Amino acid sequence: MTDKDNGMKDKLKGAKDKAVGSAKDAYGDATDNVSKQAEGKAQKAKGEVEKRVGEAKDDNNDRR
User: Fold this and answer.
1) What percent of the chain clears pLDDT 90, i.e. is strictly above it?
2) For residue 42, what is the DSSP state?
């Protein structure tokens, strides 16, 4: 894989983690499960970081 693929891979992984995290957060909210809510919020934050890493890799590759 090229470096450009790595940026896309990070962005896709980030999108998946954000979606799963949102689902966990919503489930925790609906069931009053504070632990599941916290897990979901953490996973959403991780997904956002992964997305930004992918974007940074893409920006770096565009400059080359």
Assistant:
1) 78
2) H
